[in-house]
Amino acid sequence: MHYEGNIIRPPSEADSILLQITVGCSRNKCTFCGTYTGERFRIKSDSIIMEDIAFAATYCRRQRRVFLCDGDALIIPQKRLLNILKEIKKQLPWVTRIGLYANAKSLDLKTPDELKELKAHGIGIAYMGLETGDDVTLKNINKGASSGHMIEMGKKAREAGIKLSITVLLGIAGRDRSIIHAEETGRVLSAIDPEYVGALSLMLIPGTPLYNDYKAGKFTLIEPDEMLKELRAMINATNLTKGQFHANHASNYLPIKARLPKDKEATIKLIDMALAGKVSLKPEWLRAL
């Protein structure tokens, strides 16, 4: 496989074939993210992509899923992306699902029919970084989309039949807007009603604008108990039809895996027990991105 730069994938794609078809992220301006610092976004050549698919056809026959790296594979022009999907189907007929990252911009560039076409050619899930439903915080972190646009694009993906996994960030609003961030994020998640939600806890990355703000005293990183209170408020404000809400990433202080609405009450009780000191939290040395 021809890999360039930093390769990232969702935790749920750990056993997938990682096919890198783009390098970097098409936006690469979020203040908290240092993954692609200094990396110019580009689409890899078709010849390299086809070589990698051929490699996977020979050496990755036990894997049943493909994840298209990197930060925003959905932004590839439709005809070119379809050719890649068709080649995957031709050479890896045992693959049952193809996933990729998506953002509001790339979803906006696709028509509803184009998204349905991608679904028909194997795209089964899109991973979307919402981070927060609070418009003030979205602007502060330079996300490039409003909560209303996030809702619209999330619904667009779901209406095309593509499953949606949305990532949110605990602590991203700092202390002053913590609960506002939690409740507004619950509002947006409820409006989109995704199949999956993954809550990560903010970990500041040296060299990022948000880290610089933290060092300058312009941003407050909230404490573990405040993270839990924020998570509690977020889950309480989130109403999903039958979605899974996970906060079991390595960055989280309290691993949670819940199906909403069935497990909402029990999950809130678990958080309350942790806040009361009756459930141990993950120590700092075990937390990681």
Topology of this structure?
Blueprint: E1 17-20, E2 22-23, E3 42-43, H1 46-59, E4 65-69, H2 78-91, E5 97-102, H3 104-109, H4 112-120, E6 123-131, H5 135-140, H6 147-159, E7 163-170, H7 178-192, E8 196-201, H8 209-215, H9 224-237, E9 244-246, E10 257-259, H10 264-275
Parallel strand pairs: 1-4, 4-5, 5-6, 6-7, 7-8, 8-9
Antiparallel strand pairs: 2-3, 9-10
Q: What does the largest sheet look like?
A: 8 strands, mixed
Strand adjacency order, main sheet: 1-4-5-6-7-8-9-10
Report the CATH architecture.
Alpha-Beta Barrel
As residue ranges, the low-confidence spans are none
Structural write-up:
By secondary structure, this protein is an alpha/beta fold. The chain has a single domain, classed as Aldolase class I (TIM Barrel, Alpha-Beta Barrel). It contains 10 helices and 10 strands. The chain has helices at residues 46-59, 78-91, 104-109, 112-120, 135-140, 147-159, 178-192, 209-215, 224-237, 264-275, and strands at residues 17-20, 22-23, 42-43, 65-69, 97-102, 123-131, 163-170, 196-201, 244-246, 257-259. α1 (46-59) packs parallel to α2 and α7 (178-192) runs parallel beside α9 (224-237).
What's a quick, concise take on this entry?
The protein has 289 residues and is of the alpha/beta class.
Supply the key terms.
38% helix, globular, 289 residues, 10 helices, two-stranded antiparallel sheet, alpha/beta, 17% strand, eight-stranded mixed β-sheet, single chain, TIM Barrel
